[in-house]
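Methods, example record. To illustrate the input and output format used throughout this study, we show the complete record for TetR/AcrR family transcriptional regulator. The sequence lines were provided to the predictor; the line carrying structure tokens was produced by it.
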Amino acid sequence: MKRIHNKDDIVQVGLDLVLSKGFSATGVETILKQAKIPKGSFYNFFSSKEEFGLAIIDKFVEDRMEVLYPILADDSLPPLERVKKSFETIIAIFESNDCSKGCLLGNLGLEMSDHFENVRQRLEQSLQNWTKGLSELLLQAQDAHTIPAEINVEMLAENLISSFQGALLRSKVKKSAQPLKDFIHLYFNVFLSQREG
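The corresponding predicted structure is encoded as:
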């Protein structure tokens, strides 16, 4: 394994470990050992493990947006199809990890929201940004008359993310992507499907 030399590399190693083991179970010693860096180096980059937690959230969101932005911005697809495809893409990543790891935002939300206020706020901001991005597409879908005009798009976006996170948790426990596939089917083929008048 290559020797780690900078903060970004430590964050990447730490992110992979935290996704696999959880934040509390990932000690600084483990990160240092995996990154093959001297014992004192961690605190050259981070004042605390909490600050490190904020850095891995930012890295996770940045990586996720690199994958999702081209889908969400693809004007060749109808808005609702882009929303669906964004979730399907996350599901494919989850399946490629043998239905483990899940979403860092959901994982840390469960593990840390009651203990680290700065982490809770960063998670909330990340989820709000996700909600905002979906809301904008859902509003476009509403303008195109593909979803009912009376639906509150912000509430729908928030509920899509909440339901997806719940399905992701269920899939981790079940070691099967079926709950996530059920989420896609129910929302996009049943609840939000166009019906003839």
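Annotations derived from this record:
Residues 58-191 form a domain with the Tetracycline Repressor; domain 2 fold (CATH 1.10.357.10).
The chain has a mean pLDDT of 92.
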